[in-house]
Specification:
- The chain is an alpha/beta fold and 252 residues long.
- It has helices spanning 5-15, 50-58, 80-92, 101-104, 111-119, 145-156, 184-189, 204-211, 220-223, 225-239, and strands at residues 30-33, 42-47, 63-68, 95-98, 122-130, 133-144, 161-163, 169-176, 194-197, 214-217, 243-245.
- It has 10 helices and 11 strands.
- A 6-stranded mixed β-sheet has the order 5-6-8-9-10-7. Strands 1-4-3-2-11 form a 5-stranded mixed β-sheet, with helices on both faces.
- The longest helix is centred in the last third of the chain and has 15 residues, at 225-239.
- The chain is elongated, with a radius of gyration of 19 Å.
Length: 252
C-alpha cells in the first residue's frame, strides 16, 4: 500500500503545528525535499546525514522523518557533501521531512513527553521557555540519585554522566532532550532535584553546583531517538505503511 506524499505532509504539518511553533531558522521544519513519489515505507532517524540517507534508501524507504534536517550549517552550495546528500535523496526517491522544536514540545510524540512517560514521571507539567513555548517536562519521581542514573541508562542506553550537585534523594525530575545544558536555571525554577538532558558546556557544572540541582547528561543523540520513533510509528499506523528506525549514534 502507498499513500500520496502530500497527504502525509499535510497531516504532519497540522499534527506537529509546524506553522505555529517558532524555531531556529536552520531547522526549516516541514518538508525539506520532495522526491516526487508516493510513500510506501517510512524511515526515521535523528539526523539527515549521508549515512542515514544511504541506509534509508537502501532499505526502500520513500520518506525520511528526522529531528535534525539538512540545513543545520546554514546555506551551503549544492556541491561537495551537501550536493552528495541531495543527489542521493533523488537517486533513491527519498523525500525528507524535519521536525525540530515542533517535535520536542509535542505532548504525545515529543522527545520530552515520551521520555517523561518512559521514566515514569507523574503529575507532570511543562517548563523552560524556548522561543515563546514551553519545552521541558517536569514531574514527580521518588528515587535515589544513584537509581535515577541507572534508570536513565536503561531507558536511553549509553553511559550517562552525572553531576552530583543536588540531593541524594530525588523527588522531582525535569527533562529537556538534546542540548539542554543551558537551561539548568529553568530546571531550578521548576523545583526539580534532578535535571535530565543530553549535553551541556563546561560552565553548566557551576550552574548545577550553585543552584543545587543534580544533572544527568545522557547524550544529545540518545535523548532524541524517542521522538522520531514515536512520530514514525504514529504516522505509519495512521497511513498503514511500514516503518523502521535508522540508528546512527554519534556518542555525543
Amino acid at each position: 500500500m502507498t499513500v500520496a506524499l502530500r497527504d502525509v505532509v499535510d497531516y504532519l504539518d497540522v499534527y506537529l503545528r509546524i506553522a505555529d511553533v517558532e524555531d531556529s531558522g536552520y531547522a526549516l521544519n516541514g518538508l525539506q525535499v520532495d522526491a516526487g513519489g508516493p510513500v510506501g515505507r517510512i524511515a526515521a532517524a535523528v539526523d539527515a546525514c549521508q549515512t542515514t540517507i544511504d541506509r534509508a534508501g537502501a532499505r526502500g524507504a520513500d520518506l525520511l522523518l528526522v529531528h535534525h534536517g539538512l540545513f543545520w550549517n546554514g546555506l551551503e552550495p549544492l556541491t561537495g557533501r551537501h550536493g552528495r546528500r541531495v543527489r542521493a535523496l533523488y537517486t533513491h526517491g527519498l523525500s525528507v521531512y524535519a521536525a525540530h522544536a515542533p517535535l520536542d514540545i509535542h505532548p504525545e510524540v515529543g522527545n520530552n513527553a515520551v521520555l517523561a512517560d518512559l521514566f515514569g514521571l507523574t503529575d507532570t507539567e511543562w517548563f523552560g521557555e524556548y522561543k515563546g513555548q514551553l519545552l521541558g517536562v517536569a514531574g514527580t519521581l521518588e528515587t535515589s540519585r544513584a537509581d535515577l542514573v541507572e534508570l536513565v541508562r536503561a531507558v536511553v542506553g549509553g553511559d550517562p554522566r552525572l553531576l552530583a550537585t543536588g540531593p541524594d534523594t530525588v523527588q522531582r525530575v525535569g527533562i529537556i532532550s538534546g542540548g539542554g545544558g543551558a537551561m539548568i536555571r529553568d530546571a531550578m525554577r521548576a523545583g526539580v532535584d534532578a535535571f535530565i538532558t543530553g549535553e551541556g558546556n563546561h560552565h553548566s557544572f557551576f550552574d548545577a553546583e550553585e543552584w543545587g540541582v543534580n544533572v544527568i547528561y545522557a547524550g544529545h543523540y540518545a535523548t532524541e531517538t524517542v521522538g522520531v520513533k514515536a512520530l514514525a510509528e504514529h504516522v505509519a499506523h495512521r497511513f498503514e505503511v511500514p516503518w523502521e528506525f535508522i540508528d546512527h549514534p554519534t556518542g555525543l
